[in-house]
């Protein structure tokens, strides 16, 4: 086999999702999240890991955490009964995970229970995964275990891409029609590379290009030509979709996703660090909070 062909096959193998990790908790949206992760694992013939956390380390760090009244009645949230309850809840979520994935007949599954903060635990587990699957933050059903910025924190601190499943997905499919948010940045480039298994199976792939009054059109055109050529060398045919944006690009991206009836969005994730958690750019924040289709993000 020619050397360059061998390298090509090795690269194609390297971007396959062979180990997928899904965050498991007591959320009312768990079934949707696990179903989507199982569908991806099924198409990739991947090993699927359900990970639940107790949040005990967060409990110890934040004495004012809002705990179950029955365990905090005496002003002591560290009672053994409460810690046991956290472990019981996590184990129950893992049991439900196994029930949900059973009909998919996956090659292999695994469960893990970690006594740690959700953000740090899932981010660190990304070292051993090709893809992490999380749920969109639900303001109507806030988690006592995961912080409000949990999805974006993991997207920014994990070494692998993160797939965020919306609370109310408008489609049951994933990856048939893909929309890429492209601005020529390193984050966008990494997102495209990390989404390659989806892109190679997709029926259609579109690249969204947004122009404003400050856009360097010559530079943007060059970037568009380069990314199209790059994807075509991977046998991925793409359609460029240009839009002029006055306000928020995130909202324009969401509207375009609905217009084109896509079932997966791919984008880079950028943010400014702050004392606790992350401060996302406006477009990323809008998409994370309002997306109704899965979003694959890379930092």
UniProtKB/TrEMBL annotation:
CDD domains: USP-like. Residues 216-297 form the UspA domain. Pfam families: Usp. InterPro entries: Universal_stress_UspA, UspA. Belongs to the universal stress protein A family. This is Universal stress protein. It comes from Sapientia aquatica.
């Amino acid at each position: 086999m020619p050397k360059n062909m061998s390298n090509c096959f090795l690269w194609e193998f390297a971007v396959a999702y062979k180990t997928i990790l899904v965050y498991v908790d007591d959320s009312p949206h768990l079934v949707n999240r696990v179903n989507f992760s199982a569908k991806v694992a099924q198409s990739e013939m991947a090993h699927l890991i359900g990970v639940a956390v107790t949040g005990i380390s967060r409990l110890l760090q934040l004495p004012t955490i809002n705990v179950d009244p029955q365990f905090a009645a005496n002003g002591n949230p560290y009672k053994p009964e409460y810690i046991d309850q956290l472990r019981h809840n996590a184990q129950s979520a893992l049991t439900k995970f196994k029930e949900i994935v059973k009909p998919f007949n996956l090659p292999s599954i695994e469960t893990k229970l970690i006594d740690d903060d959700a953000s740090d635990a899932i981010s660190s587990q990304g070292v051993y995964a090709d893809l992490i699957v999380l749920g969109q933050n639900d303001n109507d059903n806030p988690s006592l275990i995961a912080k409000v910025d949990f999805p974006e924190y993991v997207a920014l601190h994990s070494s692998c891409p993160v797939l965020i499943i919306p609370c109310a997905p408008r489609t049951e499919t994933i990856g048939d029609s893909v929309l890429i948010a492209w601005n020529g940045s390193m984050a966008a480039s990494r997102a495209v590379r990390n989404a390659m298994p989806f892109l190679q199976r997709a029926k259609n792939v579109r690249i969204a290009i947004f122009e404003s009054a400050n856009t360097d059109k010559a530079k943007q055109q060059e970037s568009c030509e380069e990314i199209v050529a790059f994807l075509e060398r991977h046998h991925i045919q793409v359609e460029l979709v240009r839009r002029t944006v006055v306000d928020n690009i995130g909202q324009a991206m969401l509207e375009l996703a609905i217009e084109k009836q896509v079932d997966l969005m791919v984008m880079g994730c950028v943010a400014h660090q702050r004392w606790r958690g992350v401060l996302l750019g406006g477009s990323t924040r809008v998409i994370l909070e309002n997306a109704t289709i899965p979003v694959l993000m890379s930092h």
